[in-house]
Amino acid sequence: MFRTVFAVAAFAVVTTTVLAQADLVAARKAVMGEQFGKHFYRALPDMLKGTTPYSQAAVDTAFAEFAEGAKKLPALYAESTRNIPPAGRFWVSQKIWSNRADFDAKLANFVKAVGDGHARSKSLDGLKEGFAMVDRACDSCHENYRIRN
Amino acid sequence: MRRRFTILLIVLIVLGVPIALGLTRAERIDNAQLGSHSPNADNGRTLFLAGGCASCHATPEQDDKMRLGGGLALPTQFGTFRAPNISPHVRDGIGNWSEAQFASAMLKGTSPKDEHYYPAFPYTSYQRMALGDVRDLFAFIKTLPPVEGRAPAHDLPFPFNLRAGIGLWKVRYLDGQPFRLATSQSAQWNRGAYLVEGPGHCAECHSPRDIAGGIVPQQRYAGGPNPTGEGRVPNITQHVDGLGDWTEADIETLLESGNTPSFDKVGGEMAAVVRNTAQLSPEDRKAMAHYLKSLPAVSGPPRN
Known about the structure:
The complex is a heterodimer. Chain A is mainly alpha-helical. Chain A has five helices and two strands, in the order ααβαααβ.
């Protein structure tokens, strides 16, 4: 009886851990891909290139998504996520946790860059600057804390 | 019998080591070998960007990539290398070097003290550069600000701290060949080949290496473990795992902005490379993309 309870409990722990890990990876992809990437790599560049007309509404949506996604980032890279085995083409560097102060500073800087970038992006010319500000903030983490598998 | 064998072995070592080291003494370029040349610092700047000098030699933790005070640490399986000061500071940098000494460093991997440089400095690629280009690069570096302070020495365990051993390494891995124009290819292809194989030194990161730290020639450009950091460096041949699905325009876009066709952006050390290639002329980026697109498909080492 005790062994059965133990076995079931162990199974539940393992399953929830695996599911939690899968959830985490999906959550990270949702922020980076959907909330950030969709605007950053399609909607905004298309306007900058002149492929689509400038739309302040679309710009405002994009920056709102950037701001919202940015709030989710600290939890997605919490200490508890440190030892999850790599999944996918890109993964986190352990330096996130060994240089935590720097990583947190860069996250904070990203939030600021999104705010400042949005304030700048009130016209096509303004968007060029605003976009570049966000671009540099993305780079500051990706260059140092994302590794390719 | 055993005594004679032991004596013979000792004699072989006592004679053999100096002979081997003597045969593999560092080669250099002498002043007499340099003809007349009007240095072109603009061309030198192009080579400085293509060569990525600042990515290793710029003083870390600051934004001015023209301050080449050195000090960046490169951790490898042989120990930690530290890039030296190559600013034109006369005491702490290369300000009092001659052109011949700079050429010896770039093309032969030899220091002004006639010592071998460690191939963490990628002279295995830079050896393909034209002498005139090397002299122009030197002229450009001389226009940059002198930066005080020598970088710390390398931190290498025995036996890698024995510089003389690099002479043997060079026998195997440094062919001393200049860039050869492929007459059957276009000028654009040749320019791209020169930039990629020479100053660009792309293969130095994008190829797997053997146990001695030399590039595996059959898998050149096929990617592998990152030699200086975590993770892996991608295959950039036309293999489906590499750039097989990319157009030339895609490659050009990457060299200009770091953006990839899968709506992402390159990071890690490649971000620093892109900051340099973004400053090259569009023609040079096109040429590099044209050459890279022509690389036959090669399968890289398996992921572990």
